[in-house]
Amino acid sequence: MDHGSHDSHKAMALLKTARGQVDGVLRMVEEDRYCIDVAKQILATIALLKKANIVILRQHMDTCVKDAIRTDKGAEKIDEISMILETYLER
């Protein structure tokens, strides 16, 4: 992955925000906050992680997969993406 790209920075920002939310959720549990409020924050964190994963996967397809296909080594990369998609669809 091109770690200097716009997409990498976007993914990192989403992940850092999710990390902050996890810290907030931990504080909420420590403070014995209302369960539904905690659950809502957990769902918000999951949504951020999913967004970050989509950004990373899109970047992977735009770089690694395209490069592998150009050099006739795309089958492995396509299998990797298929495995990830299967995991998404199972949930």
Q: What can you tell me about this protein's structure?
A:
The protein has a single domain (6-90), classed as Metal-sensitive repressor, helix protomer (Methane Monooxygenase Hydroxylase, Chain G, domain 1, Up-down Bundle). α2 runs antiparallel to α3 (74-90). The protein has three helices and no strands. The chain has helices spanning 6-30, 35-70, 74-90. Helix content is 86%, strand content 0%.
Provide the descriptors you would attach to this structure in a database record:
single chain, about 90 residues, 3 helices, elongated
The CATH class: Mainly Alpha
Structural class: mainly alpha
Average pLDDT value? Answer: 92
State the CATH superfamily name.
Metal-sensitive repressor, helix protomer
- Give helix and strand order, one letter per element, not per position: HHH
**Any guess at the CATH architecture?**
Up-down Bundle
Number of helices: 3
In total, the number of strands is 0
Compact overview of the structure:
The protein is an all-alpha fold and 91 residues long. The protein has three helices and no strands. The chain has a single domain, classed as Up-down Bundle (Methane Monooxygenase Hydroxylase, Chain G, domain 1).
